[in-house]
Every structure is written in structure tokens, then in C-alpha cells.
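If I may wish for something, please sit down with the protein I am sending here and say whether C-alpha cells and residues agree:
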Amino acid sequence: MSEDLKKIASDGQEKMSQEQQIKIIEVRKLMGTLSDKESVYCSDASISRYLKSQNWNVKKASQMLKQSLKWRQEYKPEEIRWDEVSNEAETGKIYRPNYCDKHGRPVLIMRTNRQKSKTLKDEIKHFVYCMENAILNLPPHQEQVIWLVDFHGFNLSNVSFKMTREVSHILQKYYPQRLGLAIMYDAPGIFQPFFAMVKVLLEQESYNKVKFVYSNDQNTTKIMEGLFDMDQLEPAFGGTDDTEFDINKYAKRMREEDNKMQSLWTKANPLSLVTQNVPSDSIELETDSNASNNKKLLSSSIPNPDKYILVNRQEKNAVALE
């Protein structure tokens, strides 16, 4: 696997330095009082993702997080249920298979030739549902999702610039740092002019996560072999599993996971403080006046500034919904 892919694959939940922990506390102070549901969303890992997306700028990250909370309050993505999007999903144009990549990241498969949406509103709702479901199934050590985009049978009528623009906006503004990789498999030449227009919508980090893989190019197929067990992938992605998408089985699984989603949010309790040793490899804080103020902030925010971590007492998986 190339070095850049190794870096992308490692972007799960990593140990934070003391300086980064201080910035998280600064964001919390700017956020003010949160509801129980907002507290579940605003875990340390979640705030860290917003800070990363804004180059650890506390003010910008706080503003971005507030906008996300406002969107979630209005759009209520965690309340979307399978039966609301089943008509959009029945062709198998976007679905989550029962496997992850070698790093434990859930996968969303997208079939470009199975487009049947009648309205942009319904298409966006289905996309958001799929993202929420993938995040629900994140393991404790991962925060990101892999997209596998199948271009077999593609033609230009399958893509909408307006839809792509909306998806790019939602992904980058409300799901920062959630995309691990977007693998474009066997994209034809006629897609390239469209992608050239799409590039202007993507932040540099998002653009860097788009990888084109071609079945007749051994250099790119190594990406798939490095990321996946090939006996789990279907032939459309160079794998050997010929199990076909079954909408009835998938619907049953999604309804079961809807119950899991509902239980997670309705039982959500405020996050509370418990103690845990800060990693010994924490970086040194700066010695200027700002660093001094940060130390005071850290001391005033928690009883023991050298030992803390935020957890949810009731639901171990709550962190997956940051």
C-alpha cells in the first residue's frame, strides 16, 4: 500500500496531545450548554474531527460544529428510517455490505447505473440515511467510511451536478473527516469532464481521498488488494464473491439497525467526566502567555487537568455517532 494510503488508513481515533485536549475544552466552552442528544454528538473525538478539518482553529471549528448541530436539529438525520427511503434504495444504488476494509472501516457501495431518483430531496435523504447507518456501525477505533463507486454501465444521464454539489456540501460541512477513501472503479473517459467540474466543489483533503482504480491496471488494483479481502468483494470490484444484492434481506437488516439507532439516541445521557491518564508522549505546551492562559483554562474546566477523558456511561457505541 502506498504511503499516502497508509496515512489515510491510520486516520482513526488517535491519542490526542495535551495541547489538542485544551483546544477541545476551548471548543466546549464556546459551545455553551448542550442538550443530552447534542452531548452525545459532541464527544471528544467528534470535536477533534471538526478541529482537524479547520486546522485546529478553535473559533472556526466551533462555528462549524454549531452549524452542524443546527442542521441536525432541523433535518434530524438520526430519525430517518428505512421505510422512508426504501423506494430510493430498492435498486441497490447505495448500500452497506456486510464487510469492512482491513482497517475496520464500514463500506458504502454506490452503483452509478442504478439511478432512479425522482426528486433531489429523496435522493439526499437516502444518502444521509446511508451515512448515518455506516457511522452507527463504526468500530471503536475508527471514525471513517469507505466509498466504493461502481462505474459499470455508466452513462452521463446517471449523474447530476446538483446532487453532487449537495452531497459534497453535506459531507464536508456536516460529516467532516468521515470519508476515508472514495474509490472510483473503472470510471470511463466520459466521466472525466464531469469530474473536472466536481473538483471545484472539493476541499483539498477531500480531493486527495478520491482514488481511481482500473481493473486493467495492476498498479491501481493493488489499492484494492491492500484494503480488502478479495474473497469478500464482488466481481465488479475485482473480488470473487458472487453474492448478489438482495433487497428483502437488506431491508430486514436495515430495520433491525433502525431499532439500534433509535435505542442509542433515546437512551442517550449527558457525557460525564471520569479520569484516565493522559498519554506520556503528550507534546509540550508553548511557554508564552497564550499557553499560560490555556493551562488556566484546563485547570478551571476539570478537577484534575492531567487526568481526564469524556465517555458515555450507558452506550459504548455512542462515540460512533459523533
Observations:
- The longest strand covers residues 179-185.
- The chain has 13 helices and seven strands.
- Residues 24 and 47 are 6 Å apart (CA to CA).
- The two ends are 29 Å apart (CA to CA).
